[in-house]
Amino acid sequence: MNCSQFNCYLNLCPLLDMKLNEWVEIIFYVLSLIVFFITYIQYRNSIKVRKSEVVANLYEKFYENEGIKYIRNWIDEDNNDAKKFQEKIKEADALEENGRYLKNFDYMVADYLNFFLLITNMVRLKQVEVEDVLNLNKYYLKQLYLSDYLNEYMKKYDYQVLLKFLNDNKDKIIK
């Protein structure tokens, strides 16, 4: 058996008979596939990095904003006591931050709820995962879900998207 018979025996004859432009075309397609997969992997990695940046930014907004800090402290103390709530309103209206008065308590509550509304919309748009939100704010989501005052406020001021998010995820939040 000579060399050409051996090649034909292995079904290499069609490959050996191919012209240079056909080989170039095959190499082009193979390289295109490789570039596609590399690009896809880089894209997925950049999405992960971007989501991490978003979560870090949310952390910063939630834990460093003075108005939100004030509401967090109020929630940590007792978020269902009406008498304490009235005291907090008077106290908040009298607080001073860097030479200017803090917004009144009602506006701070709105800012607090708007933060969670932002997160809810980001989850809906798949910019962050529910698990990331829970890892960052599970305690405060639970308090938000359990607070009679905050639930009434959300109903009164039409925070339906946030209420739906809380109800849809209540098993994960309460757990």
Overall form? elongated
Give me the count of strands: 2
Number of domains: 2
**Residue runs with pLDDT of under 50 for 5 or more positions:** 98-102
Structural class: mainly alpha
Supply the number of helical segments. 10
Helix content range: over 70%
Q: Roughly what is the average pLDDT, rounded to an integer? A: 79
Q: Describe the strand arrangement of the main beta sheet, using strand numbers.
A: 1-2
The N- to C-terminal Cα distance equals 75 Å
Strand proportion, as a percent range, falls in under 5%
Order of helices and strands: HHHHHEEHHHHH
Radius of gyration: 29 Å
List key phrases describing it.
81% helix; two-stranded antiparallel ribbon; 2% strand; single chain; mainly alpha; 10 helices; 175 residues; 2 strands
